[in-house]
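Reopening this one. Same input as before:
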Amino acid sequence: MASNHSELPPLPASAGALIFDGSGELLILKTTYKKGWSLPGGQIERGESPWEACQRETLEECGLRVGRARLACVDFLRPRADRLGGLRLLFDCGTLPDDQLAAITLQPDEIERHRFAPPAETVELLTGPVGRRVAAALEAKRCVYLEDGRPVDEVN
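Same output, byte for byte:
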């Protein structure tokens, strides 16, 4: 039986990066297109892996090349009237050297500014599920699975 891919339900997905400076603070970005702060990252394009999307988006948005990471979080967002939902993957890219961080170059049409903030403050500055996702990833020593930014009791 032939498969018809057009019958498969779409599942939007995005990938983001946790990037730390030498003092353990986290890089966050103020975007031009949504309220609040966010992480480097964005939508996974057709044919692109989540890790490739994380690398591409981080380079596009702030000029940083990330070469190594650990998958820190997979979050499923249920669709709502105001959003498509989908999968959100978060990669812990570790601590980047000061000289690399000093060369941050923002994508002017999408990113207003950047800053580094302590993890607890970062979680407060990020919006809803993103803040919960980062908090869960920072607390865990392994990859965590979430739904709408919250742990699922049956999955550990």
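So the earlier flakiness isn't reproducible anymore. For the record, The longest helix spans residues 50-62.
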